[in-house]
Amino acid sequence: MSTKRHAFTTKVSDWKSRLSLVDLDEATAEQRDALSVTPSNMKVSDYLLTLAHDPQTLKHRTPLFNAIMYEKSGLPRAERELGAMAASFINGCVYCMATHASRFIALTKRPDVVEAIFEQGKDARLEERMQLIYDFAIRLSESPIAITEADVVKLRDAGFSKLEIYDLIQSVALFGWANRLMHSLGDAVVD
Amino acid sequence: MIVEDADNFQLVRSVRSVAEEEAMRTEAAVLNPNEPGGLSSAERLAFASRIARLADNYRLADLYQEQLEERSPSAELLEIAQGFAPADARLAVLAEHVDLITVRPIDAAAEHIQILQRAGISDADIVRLTELVSFMSYRVRTEAALHFLEIAR
Question: Is CATH 3.20.20.100 correct for A77-177?
Answer without folding.
Answer: no
